[in-house]
Write a structure and sequence with these properties.
Blueprint (H helix, E strand, L loop, with lengths): L14 E9 L5 H11 L5 H14 L14 H6 L6 E6 L3 E7 L7 H8 L4 E7 L6 H12 L4 E7 L8 H15 L6 E6 L23 H7 L13 E2 L2 E3 L11 E5 L4 E3 L3 E5 L3 E10 L2 E3 L1 E3 L3 E6 L10 E4 L5 E12 L11 E5 L2 E14 L6 E2 L10 E14 L10 E6 L5 E7 L17
Parallel strand pairs: 1-3, 1-4, 4-5, 5-6
Antiparallel strand pairs: 2-3, 7-16, 8-9, 9-15, 10-14, 11-12, 11-16, 12-13, 12-15, 17-21, 17-23, 18-19, 18-22, 19-20, 19-21, 22-23
Length: about 450
């Protein structure tokens, strides 16, 4: 007698956590990541052998775990991190993408790039130095970039004899400063990246600490609510029209959901035109579905024939975005050539590309004091400032604080085609206007 095997449950989807490191020079960011990869058995044997050979050549005696991320020759020679290095590893509970970012002020643009998609920022503090200007600077940048979770690792505890009073004082100092940040979830862990204390295994030298290890916290921090699931947003990336008679009536609008939930039958609006319809169907590679949510990639079918193209934004009819040609944004300048208000730039916002001009630089953020100062109408390399921009055609957007995808953009130089700035759109003072605009030309 044959029996039909019972269906097996679908394997649980392993969650992905993106995190970045930040801290002052020589605080041990690269060593921390190297230790994390080493102790979690995420290094291949050939990588470890190459690391040992490199350490022998430099006469260090011990394996330099920082070289796992400091891949550039200049980085190894100087012992500093210059560019953003990405590393991928996984545990049975989660997958991870870690960005090792530079600590130098002159590489602010690199840090912004690495941290722009992070769920969590690991901020390192040298236990001997405590909270310094660079610590506050990186915490401010993490807050500005909307990173929802901060993990403060007080490193080099072995150099202060693992004293609890040193850790407690640093925790109190940072917590006081943290009250001025937008990030509300802040966790503190005393570690020694060089010795491996509280990285993967609990430290034998700090029995006074009862919290999680670094890897435990990374595995358990709750990130399910980090995405905006309240505001449905579908930036149209591609219009699908199958070239077969069998599917001649299929016209899908494909893209990755930047927020919210969509269901078959929902009334939606297409921005910036404002035309409305209802969802006829939702499709993925696996077939039709009834419900889609961020960050799924879907093809949406509508009941009505509407002129929709790449760059349009599909949203719930009851939950419109701001639509305007005027933007107020924080710009991080990334180009050697300073911002020039007389020049025209290309603004890329999700799948939408328009031309724009920077009308005004309201102020520049002093990266040393975090205060506002006069920018003299421009921004130089690695400077951050609040600017007013005007686009050639209306843009449908949310504030960056509400949605990190629909509130972010990049500026591209028309001549060199280089990315010159990253922008974070600020909440407009006026409510969303009616979605009807006439295009104009700069």
């Amino acid at each position: 007698m044959t029996t039909t095997p019972s269906p097996q449950p679908a394997p649980a989807r392993i969650e992905l956590l993106r995190f970045t490191t930040a801290g002052s020079v020589d605080d041990g960011k690269s060593t921390l990541i190297g230790r994390l990869l080493h102790d979690s058995k995420s290094i291949f044997e050939d990588q470890l052998e190459a690391l040992q050979r490199s350490s022998d050549l430099t006469g260090g005696g011990e394996v330099n775990l920082a070289n796992l991320t400091d891949g550039l020759r200049a980085e190894r020679e100087q012992g500093i991190t210059i560019d953003v290095a990405y590393r991928y590893f996984a545990t049975p509970r989660r997958k991870f993408i870690v960005a090792d970012t530079p600590g130098h002020v002159q590489y602010t643009r690199n840090m912004v790039t690495g941290a722009s998609t992070a769920n969590l920022a690991v901020i390192l503090i040298d236990a001997r130095k405590g909270v310094i200007e660079q610590t506050r600077r990186h915490a401010y940048l993490a807050s500005l970039l909307g990173i929802p979770h901060l993990l403060v690792c007080v490193n080099k505890m072995d150099l202060v004899d693992y004293r609890q009073d040193v850790f407690d004082q640093i925790e109190a100092d940072f917590a006081d400063f943290g009250t001025r940040l937008r990030t509300q979830d802040i966790t503190f862990i005393p570690v020694s990246a060089l010795k491996g204390d509280n990285i993967v295994e609990r430290s034998r030298h700090m029995d006074w600490y009862e919290g999680p290890t670094l890897i435990n916290h990374l595995e358990e921090v709750y990130i399910a609510n980090d995405r905006n699931l309240a505001d449905g947003r579908l930036p149209v990336q591609y219009v699908i029209r199958p070239q077969t008679t069998e599917h001649h009536d299929f016209r899908g609008f494909a893209g990755q959901l930047a927020g919210g939930v969509f269901r078959v039958g929902d009334e939606v609006a297409v921005l910036p035109s404002g035309r409305r319809s209802r969802i006829k169907g939702l499709h993925t590679l696996e077939g039709p579905i009834e419900l889609a949510y961020a960050p799924m990639s879907v093809a949406m079918l509508l009941e009505d024939e509407i002129d929709i193209s790449r760059g349009d934004l599909i949203v719930p009819a009851s939950n419109l975005t701001h639509i305007d040609t005027q933007l107020d944004a924080m710009l991080c300048w990334m180009d050697d050539q300073p911002l020039n208000k007389a020049r025209k730039y290309i603004l890329k916002h999700n799948t939408h590309t328009v031309r724009c001009m920077v009308r005004n630089v309201r102020h520049r953020v002093n990266i040393e004091t975090l205060g506002e100062e006069d920018a003299n109408g421009t921004l130089a390399l690695n400077e951050i400032g609040r600017c007013a921009l005007r686009t050639t055609s209306p843009l449908a957007f949310d504030s960056y604080q509400r949605n990190r995808q629909t509130g972010a953009f990049i500026l591209i130089d028309e001549v060199s085609n280089l990315t010159v700035a990253a922008g974070l759109i600020q909440e407009p003072s006026k409510p969303p206007p009616a979605p009807e605009f006439d295009e104009y030309v700069i």
